[in-house]
Specification:
Layout lengths: L1 E4 L7 E4 L11 H13 L1 E4 L6 H11 L1 E2 L16 E4 L31 E8 L6 E6 H6 L3 H4 L6 E4 L16 H11 L3 E4 L1 E3 L6 E3 L6 E4 L4 H15 L5 E5 L5 E5 L3 E5 L9 E8 L11
Parallel strand pairs: 2-3
Antiparallel strand pairs: 1-2, 3-14, 4-16, 5-16, 6-14, 6-16, 7-13, 7-15, 8-9, 8-12, 10-11
This protein binds fe (ii) ion.
Length: 291
């Protein structure tokens, strides 16, 4: 087994020569993988051969697999697997949802207790755009200019997922107002501090994203527009973006406390199918949450 950690403060670590299928429940490699996720924020396990059962079994060894709150994303036989796919199953039926997460976000930021780790294992790659992009929000916070820092220190931000809701077949004949009412009652907007402290590393990161963050509490609409536009422009600068180009057999796991991410779009006529399993480490999402 070989572990290659990115140099000079960049995110990412790569593990080669480790077959995760063979790991015992208390294998020391699991602790090593967890430590690398916290320290390097993003871990690539190369050359993995997983089916649905093996994937879920591995996720259980690493933590507590999430069952996503919207069942239309579930794999029909394994609710822990969130399916992002535009490929029908062997009977021609739709499986999962296509085109997920093509905007900067962290998974489940709109929940009171957001998801700790996200793992992704692609099965069918599009020929073009085989990448997922990440931004290290610890570094972004460290580099935040003073004029933007005033919008962040001691501020509470509001996060909501309703505008990212993907309409499904059962929504037909519902008005947009009805849909928004239902989504708002299922997943009401939540508040999190703009700056969160990691429960393991102690690092501070900026916990906002243009995908799910809608407001800074206490500002007027105009002030919000100005501040959020300036913050997102800074965060999403090309020099902050780390891009992972997928290879067959890659399993990626990242820490949603420290990075935001964005999926690439699939070009018309191309096929794409990937499995995702969210994993809770069951530590507080940030220091002080729930106090
Ligand atoms: Fe995501």
């Amino acid at each position: 087994m070989e572990v290659i950690e990115s140099k000079s403060g960049k995110i990412g670590a790569e593990i080669r020569g480790l077959d995760i299928n063979g790991l015992a429940d208390d294998a020391p490699e699991l602790g090593m993988i967890r430590s690398l996720i916290y320290k390097n924020k993003l871990v690539v396990l190369r050359d993995q051969e997983l089916d649905e059962q093996k994937y879920v079994a591995f996720a259980r060894k690493l933590g507590r697999p999430q069952v996503y709150f919207q069942p239309q994303y579930h794999h029909p036989d394994h609710p822990e697997i969130f399916v992002s796919s535009n490929v029908p199953d062997q009977n021609g039926n739709k499986i999962g949802v296509s085109g997920t997460g093509k905007y900067w976000h962290t998974d489940c930021a709109f929940e009171k207790n957001p998801l700790s780790f996200t793992s992704v294992y692609p099965l069918i790659f599009p020929k073009m755009s085989r990448e997922t992009s990440y931004i290290d929000m610890v570094t972004v916070l460290e580099n935040l200019p003073a004029d933007l820092r005033q919008y962040v220190d001691d501020k509470i931000y509001i996060h909501a997922g309703q505008l990212r809701y993907k309409v499904q077949a059962s929504d037909i004949d519902k008005s947009l107002a009805e849909l928004l009412d239902r989504i708002n009652s299922e997943v009401p907007p939540v508040e999190h501090p703009a700056v969160i402290q990691h429960p393991v590393t102690g690092e501070f990161s900026l916990y906002i994203s243009s995908g799910f963050t809608t407001k800074i509490a206490g500002l007027t609409h105009e002030e919000n527009q100005r501040a959020l536009t300036a913050l997102f422009d800074f965060i999403e600068r090309p020099e902050h973006v780390h891009t992972h180009y997928w290879e067959e057999g890659d399993l990626i796991i990242w820490d949603n406390r420290s990075v935001i991410h964005k999926a690439s779009g699939v070009k018309p006529g191309e096929t794409s199918k990937m499995y995702r399993v969210g994993i809770y480490d069951d530590l507080p999402f940030y220091v002080g949450i729930g106090n």
